[in-house]
Design goal:
By secondary structure, the protein is an alpha/beta fold. Helices cover 27% and strands 17% of the residues. Bound molecules: threonylcarbamoyladenylate and magnesium ion.
Length: 330
């Protein structure tokens, strides 16, 4: 039988792009070692060439095929990949020469991870090559966490979407870089995600890069501009009293836990209220629904989406990061 997995492998071998499920968000995949195939990712997404791609490998044993692990951080890298791979942790390391410059946007480093999604795994094993895959959305738009969402973003621009159901985490991987340090190595979070600061603290001193001052050329390029953005303007409130509805305007609310006591539900005659994690509020549950809810509210045609803030710990750090970026105009 000709399965979707076989068809995906066939297309990737032929130098084409395909959308694949991962445990974080759907990715737009191509053979990472084929510059012509990689160019198709940038074209389909409308992504500027200065924004580097994440390289996925089939398992941790392949790390040294795409990256060099400096001696000074080797112990920490091994500890981290033993603990978190396969999974939503991406390491930025010096790149091997085989990785095309178009993948890394000319940087001397490469961002690498191993996906735990079983369908992704079968496809990358079938291809026997590393896969470059950014999130499968148009550049700057909301990341897709279902095959339907990929269809809405890229229909007509790519030959295949492999439907693996909803993504388990719902937010893009945590991206880190590691530097030697004493007594502990320094772990810098370049993009917060499902592996939290608390998770990483066991392995070193952790700092979260301030993504508004990150040096575009060397750190996390492409992370600066407005990103994860709905077409509808989005406003992130820091407290309910910051908001007064304007006469005649239509609003939708993205609420964290839908609790009256938080004070956001009554701010306006909201056309729609969607709750990320009904009840007590659980950050990982909110994360799973986050991009889906943002996408759904964006389709209502309201004048503004109002977002409640979340607690800035655990996965709340990653969601607040996405909300701040989604609220940026340019
Ligand atoms: O969960 C994920 O990471 C998903 C799935 C598909 O794996 N991928 C993803 O890719 O989110 P993307 O393209 O949306 O985000 C990749 C980001 C870039 O925007 C850039 O900030 C960072 O990864 N990046 C890639 N290579 C880098 C490098 N060499 N140095 C620093 N940052 C890098
Ligand atoms: Mg993305």
């Amino acid at each position: 039988m000709h399965t979707a997995v076989e068809e995906a492998v066939r297309l990737l071998r032929a130098g084409d792009v395909v959308a694949l499920p991962t445990e974080t968000v759907y990715g737009l995949a191509a053979d990472a070692l084929n510059p012509a195939a990689v160019a198709k990712i940038f074209e389909a997404k409308g992504r500027p060439s200065y924004d580097p791609l994440i390289v996925h490998i089939a398992d941790k044993k392949q790390l040294d095929t795409v990256a060099d692990v400096p001696e000074a951080i080797q112990k920490t890298v091994i500890q981290l990949i033993e603990r978190f791979w396969p999974g939503p942790l991406t390491l930025v390391l010096p790149k091997k020469a085989c990785v095309p410059d178009s993948v890394t946007a000319g940087l001397p480093s490469v961002a690498v991870r191993v996906s735990s999604n079983p369908i992704f795994k079968r496809i990358i094993q079938g291809l026997e090559k590393p896969i470059a895959a950014p999130s499968a959305n148009r550049f700057g738009a909301i990341s897709p966490t279902s095959a339907n969402a990929v269809f809405a973003e890229l229909d007509g621009r790519i030959p295949l979407i492999v439907d693996g159901g909803a993504c388990m985490h719902g937010l893009e991987s945590t991206i880190i870089k590691i530097e030697p340090g004493s007594p502990k190595p320094m772990i810098t979070v370049l993009r917060p995600g499902p592996i939290t600061v608390e998770d990483l603290k066991l392995y070193g001193k952790v700092q979260v890069a301030n993504r508004s001052v990150v040096d575009e050329a060397t750190e996390a390029p492409g992370q600066l501009a407005s990103h994860y953005a709905p077409r509808t303007p989005l406003r992130l409130l820091s407290k309910p009293s910051d908001f007064t509805p304007e006469e005649g305007k239509r609003y939708a609310l993205m609420s964290y836990r839908g609790e009256e006591k938080d004070g956001y539900l009554d701010l306006a005659d909201f056309e729609e209220i969607m709750v990320l994690s009904p009840g007590n509020g659980k950050l990982p549950e909110a994360a799973v629904r986050f991009f889906y809810i943002l996408r759904t509210l964006d389709q209502l045609g309201v004048d503004e989406i109002i977002a409640e803030p979340m607690f800035e710990h655990g996965m709340g750090i990653a969601m607040m990061d996405r909300l701040r970026r989604a609220a940026m105009k340019f």
